Amino acid sequence: MAETRAQTKRPILSAIIGRCPRCGRGHLFVGFLAVGEACDHCGLNLGGHDAADGPAVFIMLIVGFIVAGLALWVELVFQPPTWVHMVIWPPVITVLSLGALRPFKGAFIGAQYKYRSVDRE
After folding, report:
1. Domain of 110?
2. Is 15 part of any domain?
3. How many CB atoms within 10 Å of residue 85?
4. Domain count, the chain
5. pTM of structure
6. Considering the domain boundaries, does residue 26 fall inside one?
7. Residues 6+ apart with CB under 8 A from 38
8. What are 35-70's pLDDT values in tens digits?
């Protein structure tokens, strides 16, 4: 019992990779972004952990900065027609946003657990 209730030393890192912030072994997500009801390894109640819109805000800022810089660079170096930008950037934005959303949501949930904004048991 003591082994299953052991605390991980890095709850935020564990949550970033999709693991339980308490034990580091169970799954945090049941789908792409849906947080499970409880850890399947240690039984931590994950129902109160909610990242809300925090990850989306950071992702919009970061991805927007990256894509705006790249679009400006492509425009200045290659000077492509407008339709090229309209073809290139929507998929880039989609891939970067979806790729970053799960780790950011995990980081927010790990921080909630670490700094006790919700009940740890």
Report:
1. 11-114
2. yes
3. 13
4. 1
5. 0.86
6. yes
7. 44, 45, 46, 47
8. 999 999 999 998 888 888 999 999 999 999 999 999
